[in-house]
Design a protein that fits this description.
241 residues, alpha+beta, Translation Initiation Factor IF3, 2 domains
């Protein structure tokens, strides 16, 4: 019995010595190259960002009217009349009819001691697109002069055709990605190959308030668009050689 156990152990060790070399190639195929890059599928993914600033050339204004009356019918009628007055004032200020859009119509009760109704309030909103910033002050004045029912709810500025700014931002974003990829390729002892994949993510336009404040101080107008940033982010996958 003792002889049989020793023989079995020797056979087991012999089998292990034979199988060990067979396992080595499978383990070697999982090895990685420089900086964790897989040698048989070498690539690198980088993100590039590009931002340029541009001067807005349009103003979008939110305005409207609000009327309070004893009855719902009187409030609604009064709001319609006030809205027509506001519309006429905006057209006279130089706004094109196609650039006026009704944005809201409301009618509801008011309470001094709920549920007792004390009156009714009606409103109508309008969104105004001003394509010529030279008349921006005139448009704002038109809202203020349209009567006590008129309301000015806010303004924003935009770039009418951002194509040129976006093109410049794309150039900057790709150059940023390329510089990063070249640096990492050099650090890993490799060179860049072909672009395998490219994705863009545009972040739209974000205002830069400090530039706007500077322009306001330098101008005799009360409305200043300042400048806005146009940003693009790209993700690029490069082949590594």
């Amino acid at each position: 019995m003792i002889t049989f156990r020793y023989a079995a152990a020797a056979a087991f060790l012999a089998a292990g010595l034979v199988s060990a070399p067979l396992a080595a190639p499978a383990f070697a195929s999982t090895s990685v190259g420089y900086a964790g890059i897989v040698a048989d599928d070498a690539k690198i993914t980088v993100t590039g960002n590009g931002t340029v600033s541009a001067a807005p050339d349009r103003m979008r204004l939110q305005a409207g009217v609000e009327v309070r009356r004893a009855s719902a019918g009187a409030a609604f009628s009064g709001a319609r009349t006030a809205a027509a007055t506001l519309r006429a004032a905006l057209l006279a200020a130089g706004v094109a009819e196609d650039d006026l859009r009704t944005s809201e119509i409301s009618l509801g009760p008011e309470y001094d001691d709920y549920p007792k109704v004390s009156g009714y309030r009606a409103g109508q909103g309008v969104e105004v697109l001003v394509r010529d910033l030279d008349i921006a002050d005139r448009v704002v004045d038109a809202v203020a002069s349209a009567g006590e029912e008129a309301r000015l709810n806010g303004i924003s500025f935009e770039i009418g055709d951002p194509a040129r700014a976006l093109a410049a931002a794309r150039d900057a974003a790709y150059k940023d990605a390329l510089a990063k990829a070249r640096q990492y390729a050099g650090l890993t002892g490799r060179t860049l190959g072909a672009v395998l994949r490219l994705e863009e993510d545009s972040d739209g336009r974000s205002p830069i308030p400090f530039e706007g404040i500077h322009l306001m101080a330098a101008s005799d107008k009360s409305i200043s668009p300042g400048r806005q940033s146009v940003g693009v982010s790209v993700k690029v996958v490069y082949e590594l050689r």
